Amino acid sequence: MADMSANRPEMLPWFARLQPGAVLVWTLLFLGGVVMVTPLVLMFSTSLKSAGQIYDLRFIPAEPTLNNYVRVLADGWFLRWFMNSMIVAVCVTVSNVFFDSLVGYTLAKFKFRGRYIIFIAILSTLMIPTEMLVIPWYLMSAQFGWLDTYWGIMFPGMMTAFGTFLMKQFFETVPDDFIEAARVDGMNEFMIWWKVAMPLVTPALSALAIFTFLGNWTAFFWPLIVTTSRDLYTLPVGLSSFAVEQSIQWEMIMTGAALATIPTLIVFLVLQRFIVRGVMLAGLKG
Amino acid sequence: MASSQHFTHPRMRGWDRLTIGQKRVIWAWGFLAVPILFYAIIRFYPTFTAFYLSFTDWNLLRSPEFIGTANYQRMFADAAFWQVFRNTFAYLIWGTPISLVIAFVISYYLDRVRLMHGFIRALYFLPFLTTAAAMAWVWRWFYQPVPIGFINGMLSSIGLPQQPFLRSTSQALPAIMVTAIWAGLGFQIIIFLAGLRAIPQTYYEAARVDGLGEWAILTRITLPLLRPTTVFLVVFSSIGFLRIFDQVYNMTTNDPGGPLNSTKPLVLMIYQSAFSSYDMGYAAAQTVVLFTILLIVSLIQLYLLRRR
């Protein structure tokens, strides 16, 4: 984003443009940002405090200890839930990246009767809230034995209308000449999509992947319904049940919450620019 | 299916005899086959099932019994339902405008800031990446009475009276709403920033040449041009608040939706009717109400976007 700001009319170094108003605005914005991360900071700092220290509200623990992490991780449940969440989120993301873009591409680049109806039908599912479908999904899962299975957690999200719409928007910007050229070269339609069209929409694919992964990583409502055995809990569901068991041991609850938060924060720090751009892209096109 | 079928001689058989157009149509339906099955079985069929179940009495043990509109009559006569209905709209009516105004003011100024722009933006965006269920517990801890709770600790250190927060029927809902606003703010800021960036600089330059002040530029150029972004965010966050669940469930586990149902949103009521009371028909009727509300919100969005 820095490259865009450089195009602004003011090209003077920042200190030459210092005005009291600007300093005030910057300070307020900065303080607001600090307030925004305070819950995260306090969560981490409390997770490093022993039970006796939690009444001390200092941001930096007097005697930091990793004991809580050792205790939380010792019985292995958190690792198990972490793994469950990872498996579910990765599988659903791969499925969405594959199917949403395949459908989006077909609807954008093939001309055939019924195309418009299919598009409207898929789009109309955006109007149906998940909450309305959970009861039928639950009955379906009970009938087919999908309760307490990975597939049971995953199946409702394997494709989404949002992703399909997003990808269709982007495939429409791919020039037909590229596809025609590949047809002349004798590539089959699947390979044209996979080898020619897909590489041209990688920004959209990464946006879709980020959104899908994050959505499934943090998903709570459906996993809470479909899983009853501790073995199959995802991280948010597991954390919730863990927190209820810990009752008033806040340092343990904060450690659990921190463990659920750390992976996404690491991913964010590594891919910051990518994620922000992806969110902008999906938000504006979607 | 294939519009160019008549070009092929009937006696010709096999893939190679098909025209290029026909082959493409077959590819297209091949690509769509699995997704069509998925949407039919996982989206459309359950939708109809939900509508049907809303007219039945069913506790999972016996087979569903058709009872007409009895579930709806029961719901509309249920004081608890109207309490939940009011709560759900309280989240929406306070949460959406408050979060959008804050998000807009922050992005409006952040857009002009260059010093540590990326860092400050990251501070605001970070909460969006957290798990609602996890952060609900952090906020729940904040709201505890002294000596545990952070906010009451701050209040007492500057000599202000203690607040009951989650233990009070009047403060619990706003307290939970703050958590939801906090979690969604980063997303709204990023989208507003993208919308602001998309406004061509020439518009501003022309306005300055014409001698327009900052306020006039904001109200006559920035806000009108930002309208699609704003409409999108209004609808997106409205739907989010109407479907609030994770925060409420986790912040009130000892008495879900409490105290005295004062924080219970529609989705939590659906969850309890279906998966605590196993009153599937009644729960389905509640989901139909949720569906109707969300449909109206979406239609308002379409209407607002059309008018341009």
From TrEMBL, chain B:
Superkingdom to which the source organism belongs: Bacteria
Residue span, ABC transmembrane type-1 domain: 85-301
InterPro entries to which the protein is assigned, alphabetical: ABC_transporter_permease, MetI-like, MetI-like_sf
Pfam assignment, any one: BPD_transp_1
UniProt subcellular location: Cell membrane
Keyword check for Membrane: yes
Alphabetically ordered keywords of this record: Cell membrane, Membrane, Transmembrane, Transmembrane helix, Transport
Cited CDD domains: TM_PBP2 (cd06261)
Segments crossing the lipid bilayer: 25-45, 89-110, 122-142, 172-196, 225-245, 283-305
Membrane topology classification: Multi-pass membrane protein
Main location: membrane
Family per similarity comment: Belongs to the binding-protein-dependent transport system permease family.
Name of the featured protein: Sugar ABC transporter permease
